[in-house]
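Below is how a single chain appears once it has passed through the pipeline. First comes the sequence as given, then the structure the pipeline wrote out for it. We keep one example in the README because the format questions we get most often are answered faster by looking than by reading.
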Amino acid sequence: MLGMIMDYPLTITCLLERARRLYAGKEIATKTEGGRHCYRYADLYERVCRLANALRELGVRPGDRVGTFAWNTYRHLEVYFAVPCSGAVVHTLNVRLGGDQLAYVIGHAANRVLFVDESLLPLLEPLREQLPTVRAYVVMGDGPLPDTPLRPVLRYEDLLAAASPAYAWPTLDERSACGMCYTSGTTGHPKGVVYSHRGMYLHSLMLTSADVMAICERDVVLPVVPMFHANCWGLPYAAAMVGAKQVFAGRFTQPPDLARLLQDEQVTLTSGVPTIWISLLPYLQEHPHDLSRIRMIVSGGSAVPPSLFTAYDALGLRIVHAWGMTEMSPVGVLGHLRSDMLGWRPDEQLGTRAKQGYPVPVVEVRAVDDQGREVPWDGRSLGELQVRGPCVTSGYYEDERSAAAFDDGWFRTGDVASIDAHGYIQIADRVKDLVKSGGEWISSVDLESAIMGHPKVLEAAVIAVPHERWQERPLACVVPRPEAKGSLTAEEIVDYLRPRFPRWWLPDAVVFLDAMPKTGVGKFDKKALRAHFRDFQLA
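Resulting structure:
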């Protein structure tokens, strides 16, 4: 019959089997305390089978949630595959969550087993009485079981050694859950987002598209973004799909370690939030490394300052802006220049690169005003950014806040943005981060990006503080570069901004910090800044 096609479920198991059959000899490398661990996709497959058998012996059944509390390592990758391919749901836990939020998400997801890196045990131990759903703690490490009050506690390598290397993978419904992550919880409890096999498969396929990340067999992929942050932006699954070599940094992401790893493993594609690249930049400038193999640095999570693009361009390294959300699996937008833009002036190209980018093939976007009307794609009109597509969540896990998050089938991102005639999105701000001054809006993102262009500034965040007449005014929180501490003044910052913005946009005050507070995924923690400066008095 015309139009009939084979029923072929799109599951994580397909990615695993493809990696085994086609790319058995490709490497997976992890930086360790003692040096380097390296094995191949064939070894990964055997250990994943052993782990799947061990999970069954632990009583894990289809649909059960299995938590990971771990760094980026080959063992974490094994859990990434063994849990969903056996029909359970892998729940990556943010290792930087506070105790109360961590206990909440483990309990709300009803995690049955937790896989824990040995170095992270002290963060879980104080919570042991608050985790009644956890039946077993599996410690991932190379030595003997550590002394810990967690019970029952098992050694990862012992489980695998005792398990069979043969496993018959079940036939799974592609729309069943394969993973889940919780949002960072800037207001109230974190919200759970569940990913389907189908959505993750399509997201992986999208990342291999030439106009997205073009991940291919020839690549060496090093995700600096944590594996607990929205499934590592989907990179481990996409890399396995095409047989790319994978490199994991473990917990060694300080500039010297990262620079050496990028060089020695001959990485071609890497990813992380802007704070990673901000901290790495001065080290690379002072300690040159051969990073000539890198074809793309993907940066997202918060806006990349234009000055950071320029600084990395000078090193021969190209940053590409990305945007997405936990609720989107997560990549939704990427900032490549199109062919007709390559003849533009450098400043015009930089202006476009500094935007978040245009939608990837599996995502539709629109911006909507306060009356629910879509605003024109003119690069000026602002509205709340909304998205939809096969990789976008349809609701939060057992959470009454789901209803308010959708508008006629579109997910409401909470970002205020404009979209230009080419489809490039410019995030003006989060709704909650806009400064509401005298009935007008001031974008904290624009001010931050400009301030970080000052040669004496390392990091900057702008928050709203109360004002008796104007309702709110901008306060700039600035971390100077080490060599500028004690010499950089508020007047220098304001004078630097003056030619770039209307007078009423300029910060009413500038405060200098020794360090910028950051969230668990490396973004500037404006919630913490607002709490710290809630009683700040403007002159």
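The chain has 15 helices and 26 strands.

See the next section for the split statistics.
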